[in-house]
Amino acid sequence: MLSMKLSLSLVVAFLFFGLSYQTNTASPPPISSVMAAGEELVYEVRWSVFKLGLIRVKTLPAKNPGSAFSAVAYSDSYDIPFVDFHALSTSDMDSTLYSTGASLYEKKDNQWQRQIYYFASSSRTYVTEHAVVKDIDSSPLHTLTYDTLKLKYDRFQDGTSILYFARAHAHDARPISVPTLVRGKAGTTNFYFPGERTTEMIEAVSTPVKVIQIEGKAEFEGIFGLTGDFVGWFSDDAAAVPIKAKMKVILGSITLELKEWKRAGWSPPEAE
To answer: How many other C-beta atoms lie within 10 A of the C-beta of residue 132?
Structure first.
């Protein structure tokens, strides 16, 4: 059962805590089609036959000056033996879906480990502020500490905004190479957009869902061995809602599947 906890931690770390920078010359994404006000998507995380927990991603009104969009991701394990994982990450994005600020909270022993990410564009310095707080809204219990990293890039996406980035490019036929930071570790993520249109079955829908496939490869090693190939299926429509994803970890394959959704006027497109 300890392996389940590691697996859930891993998939959350990859999807919500990574940072990335776009290097190709793809056409601007159809942002208005992706960023629906009040959208809320809930995914179930599975390892083999075990259902580990939920990841809930929600768009919010822009919170800070210079931001056009905001989003929050909640990750919670089910109440099962030896599994107790709770995390929250936030993202502020500009009008092109690049990050203007981010934070991460992880619950550890009835306290929260907080990380706030800053990037000083003038010096290209990436700073992580570390703190321990009793709850998400409380003041730090101890002295703040900082890690700094010099970078050669000056525009980034944080781990929550990268989900919207992938959606915006789901119908792009050209590959994208993305220098990636995962909690201070640098590498590269490659997205391939073969544009294969197919169908997928999920428990939440009784009929096959029309999807478009995205493949990729993580050329870095994340926590607990995240590396290698991954694949995702997005709704084959303008919204490009993530329907299902699979990725490799040290223990095998993790699956995320859309369980619930709130998006005005949208439902998973049914196969004809």
So the answer is: 16
DSSP state, residue 17: S
pLDDT single digits (tens) 81-130 = 877 889 899 988 888 888 888 888 999 888 999 999 888 878 888 888 99
CA distance 41 to 194: 25
* Per-residue pLDDT reduced to its tens digit, 47-67: 888 898 999 999 999 988 878
Residue for token pair 């190709």: 24
Q: Which two tokens stand for residue 238?
A: 């303008």
Token pair for residue 209? 């869902």
pTM for the structure as a whole: 0.87
Residue 175: helix, strand or coil by DSSP?
Answer: coil
Cα dihedral across residues 59, 52, 79, 86: positive or negative: negative
Contact residues for 245 (Cβ-Cβ < 8 A; gap 6+): 230, 231, 232, 233, 255, 256
